[in-house]
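(Protein data)
===
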Amino acid sequence: MAEANKITARQQFLDSYTALVNGISTARFDEFKDFFANENDFEVAVQEFRDGLQQELVAKVNRLWNECDIDTNVEILESLKSKAAGSSNKMWRPTGKSVSEQVRPLVVNKLKTSLKFYQLQLGFQKERTEELIYSIETMRAKYRAMQTRRNHLLQQITNEQKTFDSIRAHHKELEQKVNVDLLNGPNRK
C-alpha cells in the first residue's frame, strides 16, 4: 500500500508538471513564427521546447525526490495519518488551550509595544507643545511690547502734531502782526 502511495505521489507531481508544460500555447510563440519556413517547422520547434522543458522539470523532480528522501517522508506522514485516523479530537495545538488563550501573550506583548510607542509619541508631542507654547508666549510678549511702543509713539506723534499746530498758529499770528506793522510803517504812529 505504501509503495503504491509513493508512486502515486511522485506520479502526481510528474503529471502536474506535464499538464503545466502541455498547457503552454503555441500562441505564446507567435512572434517567432516569421523565422520558420512553414507552419509545420514552427509546430515542431514549439513541441521540442515543450519536450525539453518537461524533461528538465522531470529530471529536477526526480533528483529532488531522491536527494530529499521524499519517499521516507511520505511514509512517515502516512504512518502519522494512520495513527491519527481513529482520533476525533483536534490535537493540533500541543498545549490544548483555546486559540484565544494561546495567542493572548502575543496580543499582550503587541499591546505593550503599542502602549510604549504611544507613550513615547505622547512625550514627544508634549515636549513639542511646550516648546511651541514658550515660542508663542515669547512672540506674544514681543507683540505686546510692540503694541505699547506703537501706542507710545502714536501719542508722541499726536503731541508733536499739537505742538507743531500751536507753533504754526503762533507763527501765523506773529507773521500777521509783522505784516500789519510793516503796512503801518514806522512813520505812522
